[in-house]
């Protein structure tokens, strides 16, 4: 009984601490200039061409980033578990790096390249926010994506699955694509949605490199004159991402429990 | 060569050849990190160690640690990061354990684990907006507390103070701690607890004598990552305080944008180098602790 009581206290405190800022933001975003409440702030995006096009740019970046992240993370995580368990600790540390290397330091380095190095390769790379930001957003997304995929792999009998596929004549890539990937589908989707959340929120690198056409930067610009719109849009993207993750989590579990 | 092929050569030779081949599989991942993470870092370091004309010099680095405004930034960055790392680690560990002791099928677990994933990224400008909406001068929570008789702002609280900043940082520190520490908590073998209980240990004794010593390296390592996470955060502080509290990332950004002053950009890079050095020390500590932590994990 004592054990239950501390749990209730911890969960209650966490609930209050995490919900109060979100609810306050929600209340703020629902205010209308007349003094009442309404969803006008949430509807602004549909009439605002700058915001819409910036959302499109960021979604493009997010999709390509997610694909690149998965191409890097899934084969590597499978490889480490199957062939090179000795490297697990090393990879664990390597994927922590992008969390702790300050984005502002990364941005400083990139800005230096952008400003001081010529050459057609760099000029092409920095010509648009899409080609300039995507490669570095992949780096920022790696840690959480690697963790999500690796946790997914830990939950399935990976070795057995691959051996079975190989015994039936599948090549390693085929086994990966047709057997392993479906088994860890929810982890892969989770990693993709986390990447989406990251790209829809990242602002440090984009601002220091002076790319103003991504969604987060556009939101902050809007926020200068219409704070309610900015809060509404960031809240909406947060809740949407979370609901997607939650849906994936439930979908993944119901699949696993059916034989 | 199939996956299951029995070794035919002498074991030692096989092992070295295999690990060479095995390492090859990591090449794309490692190469990508080297180019797109290592590359910027290389230019930060080389820029920090040269003057505006590219000649090698230590002036930038010396300026970055001796000038008073940068020292103030160092102090508040480190105090803020260390403080929120410890608070976030303790609160996050309690939260993770509270969730883990619920039924494995309960929706609570899914809600907390998915929310942790989202909220750990929920730094930056949106988070600052949310906290201003809650605890700003006219914020919802501020007004609620006022009507309940607690006047935050009369008692000296400000959302754009170091305290306000810390309160906000903890919001993304706790979810990150939950993500980092859950595997270690799951790794506690239930039989240890049963054995302890059979020998007459109380719950408190079990935690103090068995669980916490086993968890200590993992807890320490996660706290170090939290420190690095807060140390790296920038957008939250900028949006919340508009630069009124000197922090290292803010100082770097303003040095970079103020590049009309010859050489200021390189001092910005030198500040970046200082940050990387602090992070490097933290990371070495993390790797050492991780090695100790893995001793108890059955992989």
Provide an overview of this structure:
- The complex is a heterodimer of chains A (259) and B (299).
- In chain A, 83% of the residues lie in helices and 0% in strands.
- Chain A is mainly alpha-helical and 259 residues long.
- Chain A has a single domain, classed as MetI-like (MetI-like fold, Orthogonal Bundle).
- In chain A, helix 3 runs antiparallel to helix 12 (215-225) and helix 12 packs antiparallel against helix 13 (227-257).
- The model of chain A is unreliable at 255-259 (pLDDT under 50).
- Chain B has 299 residues and is mainly alpha-helical.
- The longest helix of chain B is centred in the N-terminal third of the chain and has 33 residues, at 68-100.
- Mean pLDDT of chain B is 83; it is low at 1-14.
- At the A-B interface, helix 1, helix 3, helix 4, helix 5 and helix 7 of A face helix 1, helix 2, helix 4, helix 5 and helix 6 of B.
- Chain A: The chain crosses the membrane at residues 49-74, 86-113, 125-146, 187-210, 230-251.
- Chain A: Its main location: membrane.
- Chain A: Residues 55-248 form the ABC transmembrane type-1 domain.
Helix/strand class of chain A: mainly alpha
Roughly how many Å is the radius of gyration of chain B?
24 Å
CATH superfamily of chain B: MetI-like
What is the beta-strand fraction of chain A? under 5%
Principal-axis shape of chain B: globular
Mean pLDDT, all residues of chain B: 83
Fraction of residues of chain B in helices?
A: over 70%
CATH topological fold name of chain A: MetI-like fold
CATH class of chain A: Mainly Alpha
Number of domains of chain A: 1
Query: Structural class of chain B, please?
Result: mainly alpha
Instruction: Provide the CATH topology of chain B.
Output: MetI-like fold
Instruction: Provide the domain count of chain B.
Output: 1
For the secondary structure, the number of strands of chain A is 0
